[in-house]
Design goal:
Its EC number is 4.1.99.22. One of its GO terms (biological process) is Mo-molybdopterin cofactor biosynthetic process. Monomer and homodimer. [4Fe-4S] cluster 1 binds at residues 20, 24, 27. The protein is of the alpha/beta class. The protein has a single domain, classed as TIM Barrel (Alpha-Beta Barrel), CATH 3.20.20. Helices cover 28% and strands 17% of the residues. The protein has helices at 44-56, 75-83, 100-109, 124-130, 136-149, 169-174, 195-199, 205-211, 277-281, 286-295, 313-316, and strands at residues 11-15, 61-65, 90-95, 114-118, 155-160, 182-187, 216-217, 227-231, 238-242, 255-258, 263-265, 274-275. The protein has a 12-stranded mixed sheet with strand order 7-8-9-6-5-4-3-2-1-10-11-12. The longest helix has 14 residues, at 136-149.
Length: 318
């Protein structure tokens, strides 16, 4: 699928649930998200049908997200069904890792290729605080199990939060010295209820690169990847920087998002959405609708103009 700016849209991110077993401060309110009716959430069969249509239109890369995707009942069967679709070259999941030790082998056997794990601190007390109750030990065990069963490469997603984990940046970087693991630092985005909270805690990728001058840039394997990668001298792993605020990468964007309630977002950092659920349940021509909405994908986001996102990250899928 080619949008009106000539970009090949071949990457679909599917949020299978807006529920989560954590309450990360930059992602959702302490009381959780507002509950929606059961019928508003796509059934697994509907998610599979939409995934199949997107693949038939040229999508060859799919990522399962949430909320926390591993809390969705039937997730392994869905992954197995999607992995059987002809044409998928890359199939991954983003998880907080709490349940990964339990499900890693099943995920691998179901056809999943790799896993991204959200981890913002290596300190168990700080982890408990930022997640409002999470156990770091569970995540670390999940990471080891993922590596053990071959869900590789393992990528750790670390949201940069000023005054919270800026003192741990070096520790994260040093994880790549002897381990073939990717650490990806992500700029904090003003999304949902945290938009005001996040503005005072923003750290740019450039600030880190200015501090750690020993990091050497490496050639980008995929120009559509949002991350710019670096390595330590003789390091086995990579350090990535995802900079949607300070250095937006919209010109090479190849992705579209499907939320758990059936809405398609052409841009993570835009409030514009199109609800596919009625058309899906009324038997309308979804291929035609999807091709049309891709043509309307915006050129770029407008966060620098103060146009912040109303939905919480957990309801979007990241």
């Amino acid at each position: 699928m080619i949008d009106s700016y000539g970009r090949n849209i071949n990457y679909l991110r599917i949020s299978v649930t807006d529920l989560c077993n954590l309450r990360c401060r930059y992602c959702m309110p302490e009381e959780g998200i507002e509950k929606i009716q059961h019928y508003e959430i796509l059934r697994l069969e509907e998610i599979y049908k939409l995934a199949k249509i997107f693949v038939s239109l040229g999508v060859n890369k799919i990522r399962i997200t949430g909320g926390e995707p591993l809390v969705r009942k039937g997730i392994i069967n869905l992954i197995e069904n999607i992995s059987d679709l002809e044409g998928i070259k890359d199939f991954a999941i983003t998880t907080n890792g709490i349940l990964l030790k339990k499900y890693a082998r099943d995920l691998k056997n179901a056809g999943l290729n790799r896993v991204n794990i959200s981890l913002d601190t290596l300190d168990k007390k700080k982890y408990y605080d930022i997640t409002r109750g999470g156990c770091l030990k569970n995540v670390l065990e999940g990471i080891e199990e993922a590596r053990k069963v071959g869900l590789a490469p393992v990528k750790l997603n670390t949201v940069l939060v000023g005054g919270f984990n800026d003192s741990e940046i070096e520790s994260f970087i040093n994880l790549t010295k002897n381990e073939k693991i990717d650490i990806r630092f992500i700029e904090l985005m003003p999304i949902g209820h945290t938009k005001d909270w996040s503005l005072d805690r923003f750290i740019s990728s450039k600030a880190i690169l200015d501090k750690f001058k020993e990091l050497k840039a490496i050639t980008k394997e995929d120009v559509s990847s949002p991350a710019d990668y670096y390595k330590l001298p003789d390091g086995k792993g990579r350090i990535g920087f995802i900079s949607p605020i300070s250095c937006k990468f919209c010109k090479n964007c190849n992705r579209v998002r499907l939320t758990a309630d059936g809405k398609v977002k052409n841009c993570l950092l835009s409030n514009d959405e199109m609800d596919l659920r009625p058309a899906l349940r009324n038997g309308e021509d979804l291929k035609k609708i999807i091709v049309g909405l891709i043509k309307n994908k915006p050129k770029e986001h407008d966060l620098e103009d103060g146009k912040y996102i109303e939905r919480n990250m957990a309801a979007i899928g990241g």
